[in-house]
What we know:
The chain is mainly α. The chain has one domain. It is built from four helices and no strands. The protein has helices spanning 2-9, 20-45, 55-85, 101-111. Helix 1 crosses helix 2 and helix 2 runs antiparallel to helix 3 (55-85). The longest helix has 31 residues, at 55-85. The radius of gyration is 17 Å and the shape is elongated.
Amino acid sequence: MQSYTEFWTHLFTWNAKADRSQYWIPVIVNYLLGGMILAIIEKMSGHPIDHIYNWTDESFALVTRIVVFLDWIGSFTVKARRLHDTDRSALWILIELIPIIGTIWFFILMILPGVKNSRWRKNQTQV
């Protein structure tokens, strides 16, 4: 739970490191929470979230977009911190733009162990 709390408290932290648990726990929890929240919203509105029929649905869509944007920022910065932990530049995130192979390579980068003597000395919990 501490890793998930750190994910939201270090939303804009770039110049630090994040170990594997500080990356993977928020990623997994966000996917699970996102699916559950989406299912609840669709149940409450009675139709898929991408179909907007009235003003109430528009407010659901707006809140959803804001939360997704904040989650995207947090995911982007935690990816950068995870790459810093493996002593790589955050520009390695761009490898995800290469279809299939880039996604597989980025996944491999995310599961690699951290480097003790990396250029970034601080872990995100110490920032």
